[in-house]
Specification:
- With 175 residues, the protein is of the alpha+beta class.
- The chain has 2 domains: 59 residues, Orthogonal Bundle (Arc Repressor Mutant, subunit A); 97 residues, 3H domain (Histidine-containing Protein, Chain: A, 2-Layer Sandwich).
- The chain contains 6 helices and 6 strands, in the order αααβββαββαβα.
- The strands form 2 sheets. It has a 4-stranded antiparallel β-sheet. It has a two-stranded antiparallel sheet with strand order 1-2.
- The longest helix has 16 residues.
């Protein structure tokens, strides 16, 4: 990778971080490239440089984002259900105010496999569901007989507990 000696690259990377911090949803590499008048490959390289400099930038299936700095309760929830239970599980969590950060499964050969999700609304759930169906892809939980973990954030411990109760009542929560 060539070293960017031009101040334009530094300003562009500063602008990238500003755009991500101002957005409540992930921004795609293509969208960022169009906004900044560069190619998507330049954006990918900029994020590599930013990460090497210590910036927290997450790449999700829906785009890039910076982690929230707002205080939140955080937990890892163990769940088990079949493929058809995925949408209900995710909707239950977001309806109780949770943000689903990722999905984690334990694979017998590869160990822990983690997929970033960053799902915080029903709209996000339905977009995830659409991408699964359109791509005819397997869910990570299908590698572990439906058993999986989700790292979640909630605005409070109380909201987290009501979400746990709802998942328990659906028979999804593994305790």
């Amino acid at each position: 990778m060539a070293v960017d000696v031009h101040s334009g690259g530094v300003r562009r990377r500063e602008r990238l971080i500003e755009l991500l911090r101002a957005s409540v949803t992930p921004l795609s590499g293509q969208e960022l490239a169009e906004r900044l008048g560069v190619t998507r490959q330049v954006i990918v390289q900029d994020f590599a440089i930013l990460r090497a400099a210590g910036e927290q930038v997450l790449a999700t299936p829906r785009g890039y984002l910076v982690p929230s700095t707002r205080p939140a309760a955080r937990a890892v929830l163990a769940s088990r259900h079949d493929r058809e239970g995925t949408t209900l599980e995710l909707c239950t969590m977001v309806d109780h105010g949770l943000r689903v950060l990722d999905v984690i499964v334990e694979h017998p050969l590869y160990g822990e496999l983690r997929g970033p999700l960053m799902i915080g609304s029903r709209e996000d759930v339905y977009e995830f569901e659409r991408r699964v169906l359109d791509g005819h892809v397997a869910l990570l939980s299908e590698l572990s007989d439906g058993l999986h973990l989700h790292t979640v954030e909630a605005p409070s411990e109380a909201r987290l507990e009501t979400a746990r109760q709802a998942l328990r009542s659906l028979g999804f929560l593994v305790e």
